[in-house]
Write a structure and sequence with these properties.
The complex is a heterodimer. Chain A has two helices and five strands, in the order ααβββββ. A two-stranded antiparallel sheet of chain A has the order 3-4. In chain A, strand 3 and strand 4 form a beta hairpin. In chain B, the strands form five sheets. Chain B has a four-stranded antiparallel sheet, with no helix packed on it. Chain B has a four-stranded antiparallel sheet with strand order 9-10-14-13, with no helix packed on it. Chain B has a three-stranded antiparallel sheet with strand order 1-2-5. The chains are: A alpha+beta, B alpha+beta. Chains A and B meet through helix 1, helix 2, strand 1, strand 2 and strand 3 of A and strand 1, strand 2, strand 5, strand 6 and strand 16 of B.
């Protein structure tokens, strides 16, 4: 549906304001349903714990780690809370 | 080598980072001569450690992504799609890269120059591309787009709308028709709020969420059956 048709149906002629509201509505829709699902892969580096979330992320669907014994990605579980770290020198 | 990663790896979210942990049964060790020994003061137990190996493309995040709200064409008008095992990718070097189809079905499928396409199922060329030319057996894209790949995988190519960052009245909202109707309700709600009609705003917001919910339930087909009692009166 075009921007013009939406404006006509809603009864407004203010294009800029209508487009701003359409963007708001679009983001509301996107945050509540899984319309645009993507995957991002990144390298795991020995000794590195922190990996950035995708910049365009709205909500996480799953996080997987590659099992190199059979080259399959397997979904891992989320910890319910951060571990209490007693010693954190080089835990390898 | 990583194994049973679904059992041995865990994550937590901290700010905008994923923290990865590996569960291992180990203790602090040291190497004496040719022998690896457990230090006397340490005990053997389950521990969480940082990832202890390099894995290329080892972390995969599947997520709902933010995309451009406006596109050049309505989703309903995008019908070009082709699938098959005869699709190959040619790295043109300094020239344009191409996709070839042994069935020569690209034009019949509806592809044309200027279309934006999405490739899925290939070994190394999944992604979005813009066509610079389209003939029956060949789709052409910009130089440097593809890694050479012979036909073998089952590959699907379909058209997707081209996103527009500077929308005007001729653009389409990047949503299907039902969700576009929900957007109409959202704008009516905002207009009602501007006029101070809060009840009317709430009415339209309910309509908005109802259509969003309807759109989701349209994707699910659930049938329910109930036994009829022997003594049911009809």
């Amino acid at each position: 549906m075009t921007v013009q048709e939406i404006m006509e149906r809603a009864g407004t002629r203010e294009t800029s304001l209508a487009i701003a509201w359409m963007k708001d509505a679009y983001h509301l829709v996107q945050s509540s349903i899984k319309e645009n699902v993507k995957t991002q892969k990144s390298n795991i580096i020995d000794g590195i714990r922190d990996y950035p979330l995708p910049a365009d992320l709205i909500s996480i669907k799953s996080i997987s780690i590659k099992d190199t014994s059979d080259s399959k990605y397997k979904i891992i579980r989320r910890m319910t809370h951060a571990p209490i770290v007693a010693e954190d020198t080089d835990p390898e | 080598m990583s194994y049973d990663t679904n059992k041995n790896w865990f994550y937590e979210i901290s700010g905008r980072d994923i923290h990865l942990w590996q569960l291992v049964e180990t203790a602090a060790t040291d190497t004496i001569g040719a022998h690896r020994v457990k230090l006397p003061a340490e005990y053997y137990s389950k521990q969480l450690i940082y990832p202890d190996e390099d894995i290329t493309n080892g972390l995969r995040v599947e997520y709902t992504a933010l995309s451009e709200p406006f596109v050049d064409e309505a989703w309903e008008s995008l019908t070009s799609t082709i699938s098959g095992t005869g699709i190959a990718f040619v790295d043109g070097g300094g020239s344009s890269d191409t996709i070839t189809d042994t069935g020569s079905g690209f034009v019949t499928a509806g592809f044309a120059a200027g279309d934006k396409i999405r490739v899925i199922g290939s070994a190394s060329n999944d992604g979005d591309y813009v066509l610079t030319a389209a003939i029956a057996g060949t789709l052409t894209v910009a130089t440097g787009s593809f890694t050479a790949e012979t036909a073998s995988e089952s590959i699907t190519i379909y058209q997707i709308p081209d996103e527009d960052t500077s929308p005007d009245e001729t653009n389409h909202v990047n949503l299907n028709r039902l969700l576009s109707l929900a957007v109409v309700d959202y704008i009516k709600a905002q207009l009602a709020e501007l006029e101070g009609q809060i009840d009317l705003k709430q009415y339209y917001m309910r309509e908005f969420w109802k259509k969003v919910g309807d759109n989701e339930s349209n994707k699910r087909k659930i049938s329910m059956s109930f036994p009829i009692s022997t003594f049911a009166v009809k």
